[in-house]
Amino acid sequence: MSPDELLALDAEHVWHPYGPMPGRVESLLVTEASGVRLKLADGRELVDGMSSWWAAIHGYRHPVLDAALTAQAAKMSHVMFGGLTHEPAITLARTLVDLTPEGLAHVFLADSGSVSVEVAIKMCLQYWQSVGRGAKRRLMTWRGGYHGDTFHPMSVCDPDGGMHSLWRGTLPEQLFVPEPPAGFDTEPDQAYLDVLAAAIENHADELAAVIVEPVVQGAGGMRFHHPGYLRALRELTEVHGVLLIFDEIATGFGRTGRLFAAEHAGVTPDVLCLGKALTGGYLTMAAALCTAEVAAGISRGEVPVLAHGPTFMGNPLSAAVANASLGLLANGGWAADVARIERGLLAALEPARDLGSVVDVRVLGAIGVIQLDHPVDMATATRVVTEHGVWLRPFRDLIYTMPPYISTDEDVSVIAEAMLAAAAKA
Ligand SMILES: *Cc1c(COP(=O)(O)O)cnc(C)c1O
Q1: How many angstroms separate the Cα of 249 from the Cα of each of 85, 354, 411?
Q2: Nearest CA to ligand 1 atom 5
């Protein structure tokens, strides 16, 4: 089939993320990807500034990841995880326990980020049920978050961004506090800390857990906050008997400059969600890790098991690639790469501040954001960045990048130039 025929069928039959049906926005047809480059059917090559949504941290067709995948496929692609187990999943769980903050001991391998959030929530609700506090089944979060698109995760997404008005009566009504004050380097605001303290104290009897994205709120608005708020949440939840879930599906594996964003705060949550870059962007896999205390609580209950078991749980191909990706991170070279990308983005995005329509420019780790004073015109933005040889996917008033860690200085400056051009025109 010709590219045009494929695109016509795509528009007619294929749902895309947050897409209308029939499709109105024409997608770009990708035929190959290697390194940081996407190759399109019309011969163009684009530098990928999105890492396929935070995931492809080592770039595409990485020889080590390719080899791990092929070697595993030659042994077995999948077996059920009920009653059977295998080395790739065992090694992965063990490595995740080693790498993540001290105290997380048990690993549930899920098949997508949203499902890992479902499992994390289930762990917390079931924990309280098991220890005889079944009334504790509400969640608290701050506004501006994103935790996935299935129903329970949706209930803790930002109520406006997550379109909660559409789902009134369907979604559980969770407890929201205002979004955390902006700025990774801005010292915590006492008035806001008081808001957190009052909410947790007043609702302790009904709260199962507080769930937040640590340090960076991603798809909810690309906002950064001071790690002090996370330390406060840890103390408050401990004092008032509430569990704490960190959703590091976007921030995990080095993106913010530390292997996990929780390290900026030096705290361990009771439950931690990982996904996206877990397999280096190759295959879908996520994880929910919990402490021994959470697991022991669940095991004391009337139903002493965690009642969840995805068909493709622990998929060996995903686990083998995840192990290879963690192996690439193990030599520590990622830290210098992320710091180098951070310096490149800081310098190259700075001129955006002079554009009249730009309200903020912010960089943390390998994340660069230009915020406009109006919603981005997607069609114009996409045309402008692709003309600059770059792939970006702005949303709302945000033009942002989180490039693969292997991006060269040259790649970073090409991405930044495209962002500036889009900010000027879209
Ligand atoms: C992407 C994301 C999710 C959802 O993960 P999926 O794999 O898309 O289901 C949840 N939380 C955060 C913070 C994310 O960035």
Answers
A1: 25, 33, 25
A2: 113
